[in-house]
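Example 3.2
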Amino acid sequence: MFLKPILNFKTGNFLFRSGIFFLVSAPLLSSFLFLFSLLISSYINYKNFFSDKWNYPFLLASFFIIISVSISSLERFSNNIAGWSNYLNWVSLFNWLPLFFCIWAFKPYLYSPKSRKIILLLLLSGSVPLIISGFLQVFFEIYGPFKFLNGIVIWFQREGEPGLTGLFNNRNYASLWFTILWPICLAILSQRKNGSKFFISIFSISIIYSIYLTFSRNGFINLFLSSFIFLKSSLSIWLLLVLILLITLLIAAVTNIFPLSFKEIAINILPSKVIERFSILENLAVFTSNARFSIWLSALQFIKERPFLGWGAASFPILYKIEHDVCCYKSYLQWYSHTHNIQLEMALNYGLPFAFIINTTLIIVFYKSFKKIFIFKRKDKNHEKINLNKFDKAWWTASFTFFCSQLIDIQYYDLRLNIIFWILISGLIIKIQENNKKIQIIQESSLTNKS
């Protein structure tokens, strides 16, 4: 077979790492690189698919989502929503099924701590165009478009968007990507070596400032969450104290919990844009009148009506309009096309069984991997192992922060974000499987020999 010489681990690994590097700046090119690396990995590793027990819950979830979509296509079980197309239901499967397969197929490229460290560094370096595009947008009002490779890669930003959006054209998407990068910066800054940290310090400041410029509440919350998780055990205590102080100042500025004098100090210290974004916390009445509460309560009611099959993808805005006789845009002056909670979204679209299997599996993955990564027994003072463990902590923190962010918003449907999330989950599963003799993780040498 003339293709056999290139169907080896080395080629697949190169394509996979290239896909990581170009993911944020050239998602179409990155998708093709991932596809070819996936095909190579699957060709080499196909005999081990069913021996990996972590594939079973995703196979079961795939079964339920296909059953849900198939049965809902039958006239007898149709949701009978005027203006909704079942075509959307079938197309939506591409948000899930291929990515479930990627969890297994990408494992050989993530099998070692060093491999995962390289992936994180490539993710960080590949995000430079995002930062540059964001600064050009905010400070110089340069929006593009910029075309590369005969139009295969096009960078542009919408004019008039509030906050930094960069290559994502959405500030919440951009802020989530930056908060994925933030633990990687912390891992590099906390390395036990005497090398210069000037450039990574500048990069870290750029990421924090970019998150601020998005004016995204979700971004600020994720920044605090990921910092707390990582700094609690990895850096000196004073950095953690600074983080706690900032959170305290924010709470003081937007609530009446603290004395008025302290509130005034907090208001004078914190940027007005940050205070404005969190002013919703000022009193309970304003907080509970937020659009998300209406959306969540409506979603729960819709789920009760079709708990096992769901209503189908992209059904929520139509259901909301039917239920309230008004669309979300007219109610809250902003269009809401989803439930703003990934668990509700899964259950509403495809039924409770699918949502339960996926979320239970993810919780187990986070729990088991946390025990292996954060409860790190230093039997020796090998600095290399300690430093690699910090990158594993960054990997876990980025994954968990992503998952938590989907509790109050949904950025999952962006191609770049859902791909990186499942790659991160694949890496956590690999970490769980380390030192397990019953699980055969293919090493680079064996892959190369087989090819």
